[in-house]
Structure formats: C-alpha cells, structure tokens
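We modelled each protein-ligand pair independently. The example shown here corresponds to the guanosine-5'-triphosphate entry; the chain sequence is given first, followed by the ligand as SMILES.
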Amino acid sequence: MKLIQIAGFLGSGKTTTIIAISREMSNRGKRVAIIVNEIGEVPVDAKIMSDYGLKVMDIGGGCICCELMINLSYTLEELARLYSPDIVLIEPSGVAIPSSINDGLSMVKFPIERGPIVVLFDGLRGEELLADEDLSNFIKRQMINANIIVINKIDLLEDEKIKYFEKLLSGINPNAKILKISAKNGCGIKELIEEVLGG
Ligand SMILES: Nc1nc2c(ncn2[C@@H]2O[C@H](COP(=O)(O)OP(=O)(O)OP(=O)(O)O)[C@@H](O)[C@H]2O)c(=O)[nH]1
Ligand SMILES: [Mg+2]
C-alpha cells in the first residue's frame, strides 16, 4: 500500500487532480483509495469522488495534520483490511503543512510505503498568494515540503508564465521535481503518474 499526498493551498486543484490521476491509475488496474480531509460541514468532495465510483474515506472535520492523525492511522488500517488498495491518495486540507502528515504516519502500525509528497502550485492564484504578506511564508513552506511541485491550471497560462513559475519554484525548493499539468484537461497527468509511481 503506497501513500501519496496531494497537497496544496485552498482551490489549487487537489480534488480535480486526484480524480484525474485515480481514474488513470484505475484504468491501469491499480486499486486506488482516496482519503479526504474536509473542514467544511458537508464533505462535498467526498461525495463528488464517490459519484465517480472511487473508494473514498472522509476522516471528518478538523485538520489532518494535527488532531486527526489518530483517525488517519485508523482509517488507513480500515482501508487496508477492507479494501486492500495498491495506492492511497490523501488530500489534506489546503491549510495543512504536508510534512506534519508524513511525521504522523509513524503512528501507523503496519507496513506502508511512503510515496512522494506532491504539492500543487495554483497557476491562476499562486503568484498573488506569494505576493501576499500574510500568506507567502505559508505557501513557501508548503512548497519546501514537496518532493514534487506541480504547477496546475496550465491551460490558463502562457508558456512564458509557466517558465517563470518553474524558475520561481525551483528557487524556493531546488530539490523538488517540477511538473506542469492541467488537472482539468488531463495535460501532464500521465507524466505525474509516472513520477509518483516510479519515485
Ligand atoms: N482552468 C482550470 N481550472 C482548474 C484546474 N484544476 C482545478 N481547476 C478548478 O479550480 C477550482 C478548485 O479545484 P479543486 O480541485 O476543487 O481544488 P482543491 O485544491 O481540491 O480545493 P479545496 O479542497 O477547496 O482546497 C475548481 O473550480 C476547478 O474546476 C485546471 O487545471 N485548470
Ligand atoms: Mg478539494
């Protein structure tokens, strides 16, 4: 069971990306499960994803990175027992710090393979967020946590802009692999899957 976090700020495209990659992975014969962490009252995302026929567990309100860690390890044990997935995709809340989730995984009492931490950069709003005095440090911290940074929404971006973001982001995290996708039209999704399955 390999765990892959798809993190990123609010609205960066986590759910859209998870749906796109899990459908492609299912087509390749992988058993995929998804864990979402919704802070809102109604777990809309969980509903949308189960409508696509994907196995979804919602661990409920609160932030996955802190008080829900026990729930996460319990959920993973239940998933392993009931569904035995090959891949578990985790969508943390947009305000989680990805590494704290990985730290908490040490609580899980059975063998799991830790896949890469994928952090989405919002091609539409990312620049604005990085320029925001209050948010920029947080966004940078999320990026520094990534093994793979994914520039999303490239369907809305000029090539020049994409190149600029690649430079900007490799400056923030020189160790991360940087990919570009449109979760909406599927561009770059195959490359992302190769990277998360291989890496
Ligand atoms: N144009 C475009 N829009 C996208 C893309 N990916 C996501 N979106 C849109 O961006 C919005 C947010 O996408 P979500 O997938 O819900 O983002 P999220 O990160 O899961 O959002 P939260 O869970 O609320 O933090 C939606 O309106 C999506 O349709 C993309 O590649 N291109
Ligand atoms: Mg979402």
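The pocket of guanosine-5'-triphosphate (ligand 1) is lined by residues 8, 10-16, 45, 94, 152-153, 155-156, 182-184 (CB under 6 Å).
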